[in-house]
């Protein structure tokens, strides 16, 4: 699971108000390189919960990876951004798409219900009596 | 659950023809498990992992992938940002889609869900073996994603549990969840459709398999009421069943805006005449 998905995922446990963002407890994560795509990142940017994304990078022990406020369109489109390791584009790309959480836990912020991440797959399944009405 | 039990290597394989022209497809040998036919430019999807509780790719999976292949040029033009499979099972379909659209690179990202924990592991293994990636989530349909992914998904593919069964079979979480569809095979389909409508973007497309028993025409009418046009991409009759691959997309002329007009027989027929659907339906029925 990557942080893109973490940013889109909420807890439906009974008692949760928003169930979002899920707290991330990481046991193991890896990086898999991919070619950055500025169009994708520009398109996703307005849909992201930036604070949740930044918090997720902090829980990975990468506090410097993303700035506190989201990059601008212009920053993501800057010439040479794709080739510059430190550019806003590459950093966002790394955070969203290159970091893979392999083992860990997602915790519902409202109910503390734990959802395990095993072999890269979060298990969001709830028993019938746990599901929010 | 023990981790090693999904590692049994299976020789079963499906084929993904990357031929972009759909006209040639008719001449291809059937892609059943026993098919020995092979085509040029054929990439193979190997089932690297199998599990007694995971549905192996079968005629329905092959039909869905063939339908996606027949729409490959349109998909490449659409440049979907997010693609999602609901009920990914072995991973055959989402892996095929990711390979088919590989040239879109990081511009297209994939998600896959299944309620069966063995299935998500199998999907993960199938994706990895083919060098493509989807974020796989064990969940019921799209539970947990419905709010934040609202209106963001450009392509949804579904091979739903469509087999008419007693209702109680739906409650099973093992392999039965891949087929048990309850009354008329519609009970899970009818839960999936509203969820998909929440997720689909305005330009989004849904590809879904339905069986004759599921009353695909009724499904299309239902979706039409909600503003979606539809057509049959593919019909295939196997020994056991008649399969349809339906494609849905938002259409300003459908649904609430057009509901007044749709009541008159004239516009009803004009709606149907836009679809290859009706003619196809009657011809093949």
Automatic annotation (TrEMBL), chain A:
Belongs to the TRM112 family. InterPro entries: Trm112 (IPR039127), Trm112-like (IPR005651). PANTHER family: MULTIFUNCTIONAL METHYLTRANSFERASE SUBUNIT TRM112-LIKE PROTEIN, UPF0315 PROTEIN-RELATED. One of its GO terms (biological process) is rRNA (guanine-N7)-methylation. One of its GO terms (molecular function) is protein heterodimerization activity. Pfam families: Trm112p (PF03966). It comes from Leersia perrieri. It comes from the Eukaryota. Residues 64-80 have a biased composition (Low complexity). Interacts with TRM9. Residues 64-84 are annotated as: Disordered. Signal peptide: none annotated. This is Multifunctional methyltransferase subunit TRM112-like protein.
From TrEMBL, chain B:
InterPro entries: DNA_methylase_N6_adenine_CS, Euk-Arch_PrmC-MTase, PrmC-related, SAM-dependent_MTases_sf, Small_mtfrase_dom. It comes from Leersia perrieri. GO terms for cellular component: eRF1 methyltransferase complex; nucleus. This is Methyltransferase small domain-containing protein. Keywords: Methyltransferase, Nucleus, S-adenosyl-L-methionine, Transferase. Its main location: nucleus. Residues 81-163 form the Methyltransferase small domain. Belongs to the eukaryotic/archaeal PrmC-related family. Coiled coil: none annotated. Residues 1-38 are annotated as: Disordered. It holds the Pfam family MTS. The keyword Ribosomal protein does not apply.
């Amino acid at each position: 699971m990557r942080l893109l998905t973490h940013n889109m995922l909420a807890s439906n446990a009974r008692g949760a108000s928003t169930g979002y963002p899920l707290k991330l407890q990481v046991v193991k994560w890896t990086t898999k390189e991919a070619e950055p795509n500025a169009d994708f990142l520009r398109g996703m940017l307005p849909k992201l919960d930036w604070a949740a994304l930044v918090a997720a990078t902090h829980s990975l022990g990468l506090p410097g990876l993303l700035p506190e406020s989201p990059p601008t369109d212009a920053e993501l489109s800057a010439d040479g951004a794709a080739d510059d390791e430190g550019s806003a584009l590459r950093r966002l790309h790394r955070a969203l798409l290159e970091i893979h959480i392999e083992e860990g836990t997602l915790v519902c912020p409202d109910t503390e219900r734990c959802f395990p991440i095993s072999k890269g797959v979060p298990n969001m399944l709830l028993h019938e009596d746990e599901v929010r009405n | 659950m023990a981790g090693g039990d999904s590692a049994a290597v299976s020789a079963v394989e499906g084929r993904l023809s990357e031929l972009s022209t759909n006209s040639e497809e008719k001449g291809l040998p059937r892609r059943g498990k026993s098919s020995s036919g092979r085509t040029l430019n054929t990439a193979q999807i190997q089932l690297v992992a199998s599990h007694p509780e995971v549905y192996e790719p079968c005629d329905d999976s092959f039909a869905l992938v063939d339908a996606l292949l027949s729409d490959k040029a349109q998909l490449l033009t659409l440049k979907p940002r997010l693609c999602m499979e609901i009920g990914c099972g072995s991973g055959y379909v989402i892996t095929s889609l990711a390979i088919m659209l590989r040239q879109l690179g990081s511009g297209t990202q994939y998600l896959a869900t299944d309620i069966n924990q063995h299935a998500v592991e199998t999907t993960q293994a199938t994706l990895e073996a083919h060098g493509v990636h989807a974020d796989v989530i064990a969940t019921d349909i799209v539970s947990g994603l419905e709010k934040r992914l609202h209106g963001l998904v450009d392509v949804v593919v579904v091979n739903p549990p469509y087999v008419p069964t007693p209702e109680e079979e739906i409650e099973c979480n093992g392999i039965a969840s891949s087929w048990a569809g309850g009354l008329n095979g519609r009970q899970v389909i009818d839960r999936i459709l509203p969820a998909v409508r929440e997720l689909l973007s305005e330009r989004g497309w849904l590809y879904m398999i339905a069986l004759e028993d599921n009353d695909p025409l009724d499904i299309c009418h239902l979706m039409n009421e909600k503003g979606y046009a539809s057509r049959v991409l593919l019909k295939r009759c196997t020994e056991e069943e008649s399969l349809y691959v339906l494609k849905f997309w938002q259409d300003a002329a459908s649904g609430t805006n057009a509901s007044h007009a749709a009541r008159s027989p004239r516009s009803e027929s004009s709606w149907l005449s836009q679809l290859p659907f009706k003619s196809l339906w009657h011809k093949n029925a």
